[in-house]
Amino acid sequence: MTDFNTKYAIRSVALERRAGYDVRIFLLTLILCLVGAVFVMTSSAVHSWQKFDGDSMSIFWSHLQKIGLGMFGLIIFSLLDYHRIEKSARPLIYFSILLLILVLFVPQPAKATAHRWLRILGFSFQPAEFAKFALIVFLAMKLASHHRDPFAYDRKKINQGCLLFSFVVLGLIVKEPNLSMALLVMGVVAVMLYLSGVKVKRLLVIGGICLPFLGLIAWYTAYMRTRLIEYAEGIMDPLHASHQVKQSLIGIGHGGLTGVGLGASTQKHFFLPEPYKDFIFSIVGEEIGLIGAGCLLIIFLAFLTRAWRVARLAPDPFGYYLAAGITASIAMSFVINVGVTIGLLPATGQPLPFISYGGSSLVMSLCTVGVLLNISRQIQRYESIEPRMLAE
User: Fold this and answer.
1) For residues 288 and 244, what is the distance between their CA atoms, to the nearest angstrom?
2) What is the rounded distance in angstroms from the CA atom of residue 46 to the CA atom of residue 181?
3) What count of Cα atoms within 13 Å lies in the side-chain half-sphere of residue 48?
4) 184/22 Cα distance (integer angstroms)
5) Angstrom distance (rounded) from CA 332 to CA 350
6) In this predicted model, what pLDDT tens digit does every residue of 335-367 receive, in sequence order?
7) How many domains does the chain have?
8) What is the dihedral of CA 339, 345, 347, 350, to 10 degrees?
9) What is the extent of the structural domain holding 151?
10) Predicted confidence (pLDDT) per residue in 86-111, tens digit
C-alpha cells in the first residue's frame, strides 16, 4: 500500500508540474459545476416554462452564462499573481464598504424583503458576496504583516484592526438584513483569527457578544422571527417545521437509496419554491438518492481537502491566510446549505457552492478558486518534499 501511495504521489506531482497548478482542484470544480448545471436544468424547467411563457430552458441558459462568467474570472485570477491582490487589500475593503452602504439606498426588486442587490449596466449582484472576499483579502494582509516583521507590527493592534473592519462589514450586512451571510462572515473571521494564534477563549467571548445581538435583530425582523419559530417548532415536531424544510425532507425521503431518476422529481413541481436555488440539494437527494448525494458530498470533501492542502503549502503567510479564508468560506456555505436542507439549521438564503443557480455567489466562488490555483502555481515544493508527504 505504501508503494502504491508513493507511486500515486509521484504521478500526481508530475502532472502538477506539467500543468503548473493543482489540477485536481480545477477538475473537481468543473465536476461540481457540471453537476450543478444538470440539476439546475432538471429542477428549473417547470418554473422556467411558467415564468418565461413556455421557454423551459431560459433559467438553465442563464445559469450557463453565469458559469461562463465565473470561469472567465477563474482563468483571470489563476494567472494574476495573488501578491497583487495583497497590494489592493485596502482599496478592496474600502470599495466593498462603499457598495454595502450604497445598496441600502437603491431601489430593490419587487417583493424583496431586504436591500441586497445592486444593478449596474444591466447586471445584478450582491455586494455582500464581494465584501466577503474583500474582507478575507484584508484580514490575510493584516495577519501576514506580523509574520514578515514581528517587531514592526504590534500583534494586538493588528487584531484590533481586523476586528474593526470585520464589525463594520458585519454591521452593514446585518443592516440589509442578511443574517445568514453575517453568520458566514463571522465564521470565516473566527477561523482566520484562530489560525493566526488568537485563543479560543477570546473568540468565544467575541462570539458571545455578537450572537445575542444578531439574535435580537432576527427576532425583531418579521420573516426571520417566523423562520426561527418554525425551526424551534420543527425540532419538537417535524410536522410543524417550515413549509420549505418539510418539502425538502419529503423530497429527500422520496429519493430513498438510489433516487427516483434524473428529471423525475415531484418536489420541483411547485412544492419547493425555486428548487434550483437554495434547496437544490433536496432535488439531488430525490433524483439520485442517498448514494448519489453521498457521492456529491465526497466530491465536495475532496475539493476542500485539496484547497486546505494549498493553504498548508502556501509559499508565504499571506497565501496561507488567503487560501485558508477562501476554503473556510466555501466549506461553511456548503455546511449551512446542506444543514438547512435536511432541517438541522433554520431556513436561510445561503446557496450551495458551485451547484445552486448562478449569480453573485457562483461567480465569486469560481473567482476564488482561481486565486487558489494561482497560489498553487507558486508553491515550490516538488524537489524539497518527500513523496510520502505529497501523498497526504
Assistant:
1) 20
2) 29
3) 18
4) 26
5) 10
6) 999 998 988 888 787 899 999 997 889 999 999
7) 1
8) -50
9) 2-390
10) 999 999 999 999 999 999 888 877 66
Question: 279: part of which helix (H) or strand (E)?
Answer: none
Q: What is the pTM of this model?
A: 0.89
Residue 201's contacts (CB-CB under 8 Å, 6 or more residues apart) are none
User: What is the distance between the alpha carbons of residues 270 and 288, in angstroms, rounded to a whole number?
Assistant: 19
C-alpha cell of residue 105: 439606498
Which three cell numbers mark 235?
A: 425540532
User: 206, 163 in Cβ contact below 8 A?
Assistant: yes
In this predicted model, what pLDDT tens digit does every residue of 45-94 receive, in sequence order?
888 888 887 788 999 999 999 999 999 999 999 999 999 999 999 999 99
User: Do 297 and 68 form a contact (C-beta atoms < 8 A)?
Assistant: no
**Residue found under cell 424583503:** 113
Look at the chain and count its residues.
Answer: 392
Dist CA 162 CA 193 (whole Å) = 9
The C-alpha atoms of residue 350 and residue 280 are separated, in whole angstroms, by: 11
* Nearest-angstrom CA–CA distance, 385 and 352: 35
**How many whole angstroms separate alpha carbon 349 and alpha carbon 75?**
28
- Please, which residues have CB within 8 angstroms of residue 110's CB and are 6 or more apart in sequence? none
